[in-house]
Amino acid sequence: MYFKESNGFPETFLWGSASAAYQIEGAASEDGKGVSNWDQFVRIPGKTFKATTGDLAVDHYHRFKEDIALMAEAGLKTYRFSIAWTRIIPDGNGEVNEKGLAFYDAIIDECIKYGIEPMVTVYHWDMPQALQDQYGGWENRQIVKDYVRYATTLFEHFGDRVHYWITMNEQNVFTSLGWLTGMHPPGKVMDQKMFYQVNHHANMAHAYSVLELKKRYPDAHVGASFAYTPGYAWDCKPINAMAKADYDDLQNYFWMDVYAYGRYPKAAIRYLESNGIHIQMEAEDQKIMKQAAALIDFMGVNYYQTAAIEYNPIDGVGMSTEVNTTGKKGTAKEEGIPGLYKKPSNPYLEKTDWDWTIDPMGIRMCCRDITSRYDLPIVISENGLGAFDKLEEDNVIHDPYRIAFLEAHLKELKKAIDDGCDVWAYCTWSFTDLLSWLNGYQKRYGFVYVDREEDDTTAKLNRYKKDSFYWYQNVIKTNGKDL
Ligand code: BGP
């Protein structure tokens, strides 16, 4: 829709940036931290670009004061970060580690000192390896109890100062990559039954923790962050429009409907059952899912790209177990689900060097769809551009491509707000450069350059502000008025 005048961003808008513990902290075995599934998985040859690990990452563990001071200089209103379960309960379900709590106390207090609202992700993929070894981690229903105990420990300890909580980061991604494509731990390939079961356990872990949080802090704001890739029907052939409906039910609403309505989409469940996949539920599950759905305050959206959706014949392409992790454009492969849909390359959109489509309008599509379907407030919990950056003489970094990317997305987000979407926050991915799970350190996202490459031994770890730092600083200062 078109509006003659824009109301712009609300005065209370939370301009922010996001990170995740494994990607930023380092200090992998300090102060009692336990081993996570990622600490272990990255050691399997061939899993990550140039065998990178988060052992050192960008050493945020020791440099968080410097990093948060830079956030304050940029004017951030919120900082979204995740807590490493292995720092709080090193073996997943045993003793609580006071030093772990103290580390996040210090981060939270540092944020508050500068008037930055801490936004905490309970789980951003790094599960204690001990739980994998004890009972198979997410594959066992026991994880729900252990997760809820861990989450409740956080709510009780930090809930007096943290008003925004994200239970799960991209549940759709860690389950799909963990049990379908094998690219994330535990590295299982096309174990469809387990994938849906694991996902259900994650739904219950989310739901029970929402209830525990609201018992203690009824005014806390809580949601989950969904990796939302809106789909466009390839053309106006009805079969492609139906493929898009299938895609939405199985790839998007399969998660968002659970968070917002407490139920799975009917057509998706019918499809799974007709393929012999029956999600095992306990008697109370549906009731608990609904109770949690009634209590969530926002839909968290990690938005990076859109997909074109075309009908895929029964003998068509399957899921790809390879992705472009090198930054050599054009190396990603088409993928899909035979008999339902596939995702051909969209000829109308540019792509990043890692073959992610660049589609600013997609962020508005996300907001519009969530508003129409769920009428929930929205937190954009991630959005950003992974790119090669160059540190030049005098330690300057010119990244006009990142500024153009973010600016175009913010213009569309502003339109979404004019459309009536209740958007509370926008977090860029990321603030400093950090480790990209599978793509090493060369795929950079930050406003602040971190002087390191793949090899830990040559890492200098100095922080340098990129041009985009100053650009974002001005956007925040003017509350997006100049966009
Ligand atoms: C999201 C994750 C983030 C981050 C981001 C960029 O899926 O929540 O943790 O990594 O994507 O992805 P990548 O590092 O693969 O480029």
From TrEMBL:
Q: Does the keyword section mention Nucleus?
A: no
Q: Which domain of life is it from?
A: Bacteria
- Fetch the SUPFAM superfamilies from UniProt: (Trans)glycosidases (SSF51445)
**Matching InterPro entries, A to Z?**
GH (IPR017853), GH_1_N_CS (IPR033132), Glyco_hydro_1 (IPR001360), Glyco_hydro_1_AS (IPR018120)
Q: Which GO terms describe its molecular function?
A: beta-glucosidase activity
- Say yes or no: keyword Kinase present: no
Q: Could you mention a single GO BP entry for this protein?
A: carbohydrate catabolic process
A Pfam family that the UniProt record links to this protein:
Glyco_hydro_1
Give the GO cellular component terms, alphabetically: cytosol
Alphabetically ordered keywords of this record:
Glycosidase, Hydrolase
Query: Which residue ranges does UniProt annotate as crossing the membrane?
Result: none
**Where is the catalytic site?**
382
Query: Its family?
Result: Belongs to the glycosyl hydrolase 1 family.
Protein name (database record): Glycoside hydrolase family 1 protein
Query: What is the originating organism of this protein?
Result: [Eubacterium] hominis
According to the entry, what is the taxonomic lineage of the organism? Bacteria, Bacillati, Bacillota, Erysipelotrichia, Erysipelotrichales
